[in-house]
Amino acid sequence: MSFSRIATNIRYYREKCQLTQKQLSEELNVSRPVIAKWENGTVTPDLKSLIELRRVFKVSIDEIVGFETTIPQEPSKGYPLSMNLISKDDWEVIDYLLKNRLLKEQLVRMIGLPLNKQKFIHSMLRSIVNEIKRI
Fold it and tell me: Where is the HTH cro/C1-type domain (predicted)?
């Protein structure tokens, strides 16, 4: 379980439900700073809070904590037939991009760059990830 994934998912589902931190805090009977701490990963919600988040967001606890991604039950509905060939890893990447708007925006910008600059970014990203995994 990744605590950063929990934080990302709480923010994602709160925004998807069009709730402010204040509105969610009132719904859960907690303070707004508690919601902020959950969303920045400083604190993780307890089980009681996860159950309440599940109720408010209308998703499973597994989706909130990141054990399960939001994958369509029937991928062929609304998607080209070839979408059925997408792996679970691909769906997790799609789910991650949907929940991390800023990264998605940067990737869209990167796609517009010349191929040689895209390859340079790929190389930098690979180096950064490898270095962080090493630490």
Answer: 10-64
**Model confidence pTM above 0.85:** no
* 75 token code pair: 């991928």
What are the tokens at 122? 């790929």
| Terminal-residue alpha carbon distance, the chain | 19
Q: What are phi and psi of 98, to 5 degrees?
A: -65, -30
Domains of the chain by start residue, with CATH: 3-65 (1.10.260.40), 81-134 (no CATH)
Q: How far apart are CA 2 and CA 95, in angstroms?
A: 15
> Model confidence over 38-76: pLDDT tens digits?
998 889 999 999 999 999 999 999 999 988 665 555 544
Q: DSSP string spanning 2-24? A: -HHHHHHHHHHHHHHTT--HHHH
